[in-house]
Design brief:
Helix content: 40-55%
CATH superfamily of the largest domain: Histidine kinase-like ATPase, C-terminal domain
Strand content: 5-15%
Strand order of the largest sheet: 3-5-6-8-7
Shape: globular
Radius of gyration: 22 Å
Distance between the termini: 37 Å
Number of domains: 2
Largest sheet: 5 strands, mixed
CATH class of the largest domain: Alpha Beta
Number of helices: 17
Structural class: alpha+beta
Amino acid sequence: MLSLRAVARHNGFAIRSHRLKAIGTRHIQTATVTDGDIARLAAKPLHPLTLADLCKFGRQPLSTEDLLNNANFTLSILPSRLAHRIQSLRSLPYIVVANPNVNKIHNNYVHSLSTLLPYAERHIETLEEEIKFTEAMADLVQTHSNTIAILAKGFLEARKYISAKEVTAFLDEHLRARIGTRLIAEQHIALHFSSQPHHELQDGEQHEDSSYIGVIDTELKPASLVRTCENTVGEICELRYGVRPTIKIVGSPEATIAHIPMHIEYVLTELLKNSFRATIEAGMEKEPIEVTIAPAPATQAQTAALKAAKRDDERDQVLQKHAVGVISNYDQGSVDAASGGNYKPDVASSPNIRPLENSTPGVTIRIQDRGGGISPENHAKLWEYGFTTFNEDEINDKTSSGGITALDVISGGAGGGSSLAGLGYGLPLGRAYAEYFGGGIAVQSLWGWGTDVYLSLRGVGRVD
């Protein structure tokens, strides 16, 4: 098992010290997980989580009291989320769950739940207990680091025993839920390292002023992330094609919001990769790709249009219509459709979850290219997990190294590594990251001309 320090470095947490003493790896206490434990925890309805919930204990460095409160907040919501995932996996056809890769993911979730059960019936009241709990969080993050790639391989191998529609429904729910599980754990680990009581881990250095609260940057500038992603994708294009398109940023490049940089970076990388590839292959690389940054929350009509544009009737029944900025259980993978549940948001009943403020600032990013647009037959498949539409030969091509290009490989990122390359996970995952906190992605294509992609993001609001 990795030490906390190693896991923190691996996951790119915003830890503002140059020298951390490694925390010794201890044996993580576990408890036997029974079917009764899973049923009891999975019976608890899940509630949508907001960025404000993750920031509720204030800016770093956290005091001892705030750190312990955050640990207990984390503990109050993670076990039931893990139990829901176990139950959802068990609802799949037995022959699918028996697949070695799918079964590995099931066992990983059972293991993670076993590390939380020793704490589930009590409060964390001392720093020693908090350290042990944080080690359990590090183990959870490491255990599930390659979940998506393993599930993808498992469902490829079991595709004869489950329909494409069932696979897409399961993955859409499961991967959205996974975003929240990892984020909750990562947030506590980051707050642990930046807390006042663990000041000695930083050799007595003073905390630098920071815009971060855990993994959330309260002064995130989308334009800077656009430039970072432009350089990454541009270098790959130059190696593969010998040319790279340019980006022209217009609107309000100085706009800032409070959000999670690694989530937005993943989405932007995927969107820019598609625009760069289309622009070059259309021979329009001399035409700059225009990125407009508009620092205003989407209107209710715009949000409704986003939802309607990318959801079929079945999804509309789950989501129904909701006001601007409201985060749905569908967005966060908490509907439990796979296991027969359909829990509606009930924020008032949970003291741990706070409603999203109506005044929460946001930003809309438009990416406009001259790459020839998207053909009508492909436009209808944008949000499907790509492997569900491959024939046998295409699957073999995609899972062999010869069928993967450099542009496919960079799709790994937050999505789970290059083993996902070329399998069509990029856009569905990008949409999941965007929607998780009330944003969205809408695509408008002029076939034969170009494509406009609208990425809307909701921030935290005022952070004291």
